[in-house]
Description:
With 225 residues, the protein is an alpha+beta fold. 28% of the residues lie in helices and 35% in strands. It is built from seven helices and ten strands. The strands form two sheets. A six-stranded mixed sheet has the order 2-1-3-4-5-6. A four-stranded antiparallel sheet has the order 8-9-7-10, sandwiched between helices. Helix 2 (20-37) runs parallel beside helix 4 (61-69) and helix 4 (61-69) packs parallel to helix 5 (82-88).
Amino acid sequence: MSNTSSVFDMIGPVMIGPSSSHTAGVVRIARTVVRILGGIPETADIIFYNSFAQTYEGHGSDRAAVAGLLDFSTDDKRIKNSFDFAKKQSMQYSFKSVGNASTLHPNTIAINAKKGDEKLKLVGESRGGGVIRIKEINGFTANFSTNFHTLVVNAQDAKGAIGFLSNIISQDECNIATLTVSRMGKSDKACQIFEIDSELKKQTLDYISTISWVNSVKYIPVIDN
Length: 225
């Protein structure tokens, strides 16, 4: 998949400042956490790496992360007061900085979140202009942008699984833009991530969740801002 950006991406979204990388991108990464968990988390540990680790407080990335976890959009005026709104929601959160992680993108954020029995570790990169890349989900390589509708299937590494799921998706007349597959080992746990051009039907998602070798299904509609 190409990592090039459009002119619109370079200009960036309508947002609350001061920086698209430090605010808009962080909001979108955190909103992805909400989509995967199925709601606002009860607790979240937020880790900023590299450049973010040095600037997250002064540039408002901390408030942006909390705002995204509250599912605020990038242009929501409440971002600046997100800590107050988190308190009202009884959402617990903490911040940590790691200044030298040479293998990670300069603007990397990791979020460990929990909602009920559901736990999630997500690692994301903010690439400027509000453009993001979700790098990792629960230890699996992810590599998606939230610019497409995204299907995340956690399953056993069954033979023919990729072709089978691709065929199901095609029955909804959806084109697959990208496919990322990561697994712990042969015949072990695997994660298949499909970025698709149009929405999947609820019946299709329900059917996929009933397949014997599928452990969980997460669906993330396009996050516009």
